[in-house]
Amino acid sequence: MYRSYLASGSTGLCWRTVGPSSNPTLQPLSMLAKFLSTPSKRDEIVTELDTLMSGDVDVSNYVQLVVAATIYLGVEQAESALRVLHPSDHLECVALRLQALLSIHRPDLAKKELKTMQEKDEDATVTQLAQAWTN
Questions:
Q1: Residue 68 has pLDDT above 80, yes or no
Q2: Where are the alpha helices (DSSP H) in the chain?
Q3: pTM above the 0.90 mark?
Q4: At residue 111, does pLDDT exceed 80?
Q5: Neighbour count for residue 41 (Cβ, 10 Å)
Q6: 107: which residues sit within 8 A by CB, 6+ positions away?
Q7: Got the DSSP string for 57-90?
């Protein structure tokens, strides 16, 4: 639900309601809300993210990985996004890896990621979208 708020531009709602006491899965969305709503602080947010991702990262929290990769892709750091997403096989993480590979002009590797997605869940909407990106 909060991700849809962010996508629609309602970053303030997410920022106000997701805090340190929220579910750990939702907490990274606060950083993404701050990143999207305050372009002047993006360098500071990326530095904070670098510190966060260099420590112990819970790879089972795919939302944290997706948020980190989204921020890195937002500042054109595709290699950092790929590094963050590498340990996860969650479908959304694979889709973002595919997107990062396309952003660095590696359609050959992106097609390999698409095959991984199709093996995992060929009918998923994100897989269908990824297929459209690679064709």
A1: yes
A2: 2-7, 11-17, 27-37, 42-54, 62-74, 78-85, 91-103, 107-121, 125-134
A3: yes
A4: yes
A5: 12
A6: 101, 134
A7: --TT-HHHHHHHHHHHHHTT-HHHHHHHHTT---
